[in-house]
Amino acid sequence: MRAPCCCRPRSGLPFPPFLIFFSSLLVRARPGWALQNVTSQLFGNQAYGTLAAFGDFNSDKQTDLFVLRGDGELNIFLADQKEPYFKPKVKLLLTNVVITSVVPGDYDGDSQMDVLLTTRPQKQPNADLSVLIFWGNNQTLDVNRKFVLNKTFHDEPLIMDFNGDLIPDVFGATSDSDKPQVLLGRNLSWHIALDTQKKLYTPHSHAFIDLNNDFTADLFLTTLAPPNEIQFEIWVNQDGNFSKATHMKRKPKDVKVVGQSVFADFDGDGQTEHLLPACADSACQKSVIYLSKPGLDSWFPVLQNFTYKGTLWGFVPYDSAQTNFSFPITLHIGDYNMDGYPDALAILKNTSGSNQQAFLLENVECNEASCAGARRMFKVYWELSDLNQIKDAVVATFFDIYEDGILDIIVLSKDSTKTELAIHTLKNNFEADAYFVKVIVLSGLCSNDCPRKITPFGVNQPGPYIMYTTVDANGYLKNGSGKTYFC
Ligand SMILES: *[C@@H]1O[C@H](CO)[C@@H](O)[C@H](O)[C@H]1NC(C)=O
Ligand SMILES: *[C@@H]1O[C@H](CO)[C@@H](O)[C@H](O)[C@H]1NC(C)=O
Ligand SMILES: *[C@@H]1O[C@H](CO)[C@@H](O)[C@H](O)[C@H]1NC(C)=O
Ligand SMILES: *[C@@H]1O[C@H](CO)[C@@H](O)[C@H](O)[C@H]1NC(C)=O
Ligand SMILES: *[C@@H]1O[C@H](CO)[C@@H](O)[C@H](O)[C@H]1NC(C)=O
Ligand SMILES: *[C@@H]1O[C@H](CO)[C@@H](O)[C@H](O)[C@H]1NC(C)=O
Ligand SMILES: *[C@@H]1O[C@H](CO)[C@@H](O)[C@H](O)[C@H]1NC(C)=O
Ligand SMILES: *[C@@H]1O[C@H](CO)[C@@H](O)[C@H](O)[C@H]1NC(C)=O
Ligand SMILES: *[C@@H]1O[C@H](CO)[C@@H](O)[C@H](O)[C@H]1NC(C)=O
């Protein structure tokens, strides 16, 4: 099992690289809106491997793709002006280990993108994870220019900016301590991160995100209270210190399987809501997506009807023992139709068959009593052409392939006759009279006087939060917000 793009426990970006968000005025979907397969234009014959992260590796203001192949091979596909638009140009090969995740970032503050990899020994799916940081150097990676962390992690670490110095830090439960540890970037020194005895839940779904709208990222943790009860805690960032969580939110009653928490302004009021995909039974015959508001305990189902034309669909339970591409239950969020409300992508399986597919969940006004408290709900597109042709999908995420403000879709699928995942890219032909705002967050550590004369541009940055107010076509004010968060 390893980290697909933007996937949660296996740290990556839930959003493409920098902070990109969209808002809209007049939105009109063209009739016959569809998704178009553009895989070969993008990748040629190289559309395989686990797409694990996004980031602008060579500072050309275009997003590059980080793809894992085999056990220990990282390929960076650099964006190009000519077809195929992504070409594998930078390669790093590690031996005797399995790379489980990739997190690009500037870990030493020289404004060049470095690449953090987590690895475990081959044939030991339950071993602790080692963490290595390969230093970016003139847009290449050298297997010998690296820093190896001298502690191992029980789970994928969370990449966050713990001390607010704009340099990403590495947070998680290490093998030598009961308390979560953090390795501070640049200093590369270890510190006890939080004063808590609670066990962090594995696979983790922690997040570094502003949850109280003070423009400072807080720490959201999923922990285990005795006896193994999953709960959620928010450590609020107060003047740079994470203050001990005083309130624990329990998981919804009757929930047996908990997926990865994700955060979005679901009803467009400027506040961030917590979305939780879950199942009422261990086989996920009864799946539900819940929503809750920060600080409140109630959970509202925003999707609970998974039946279509006699087939009952459900989330795919995560099996950590199965090494063949089992991923935690995850929603990937993005506003595909530019109506200002976040939509989602989910992987569901036919509960009586074996096929699993990616589905688009549209955020629509709530028309059922159960979701009234959430104001909005999800409607599933059960028959979305080209998305439903991809069999055995394992990951689906939004990505603005053409950098035109419209979110396209990337799907990874497995094929039992092949050892690598197949990469599919679907262009969103949505046409709308809408505007979009793209915000790129820079660390600001240097601008024109950077060390070694490098061009700084948009190295992935954890935690920023932006809020904006727009006026809609009817003259009403609408709040929106955008954020990147690492997970
Ligand atoms: C960086 O690499 C390019 C070619 O890859 C080379 O032309 C250039 O001299 C290198 N710069 C430095 C500072 O090493
Ligand atoms: C990091 O290193 C700098 C200089 O090397 C030092 O001044 C600073 O105190 C260190 N910070 C921490 C948190 O160790
Ligand atoms: C681990 O590395 C840190 C620096 O990152 C160093 O201070 C410490 O002594 C090392 N510990 C061991 C056991 O080598
Ligand atoms: C944050 O924590 C540090 C170290 O524990 C302490 O010295 C400092 O006063 C705290 N700051 C605030 C604003 O609480
Ligand atoms: C579930 O949705 C389907 C169509 O998507 C509908 O036919 C069916 O009546 C719904 N079931 C319930 C219990 O609402
Ligand atoms: C996992 O993959 C191996 C070979 O790649 C195959 O033999 C095995 O049947 C697969 N297991 C499952 C559960 O799909
Ligand atoms: C789900 O699986 C059952 C059993 O294999 C099959 O009869 C049914 O057609 C499948 N549904 C869909 C939509 O593929
Ligand atoms: C998309 O196009 C590629 C390359 O032409 C092809 O291999 C793949 O099967 C297509 N995918 C779908 C879902 O049609
Ligand atoms: C937008 O946010 C501001 C500041 O939080 C708040 O005062 C205002 O009522 C909000 N407006 C709407 C339409 O939600």
UniProtKB/TrEMBL annotation:
Keywords: Signal. Transmembrane segments: none annotated. One of its GO terms (cellular component) is plasma membrane. It comes from the Eukaryota. Residues 1-34 form the signal peptide. SUPFAM superfamilies: Integrin alpha N-terminal domain (SSF69318). This is Integrin alpha FG-GAP repeat containing 1.
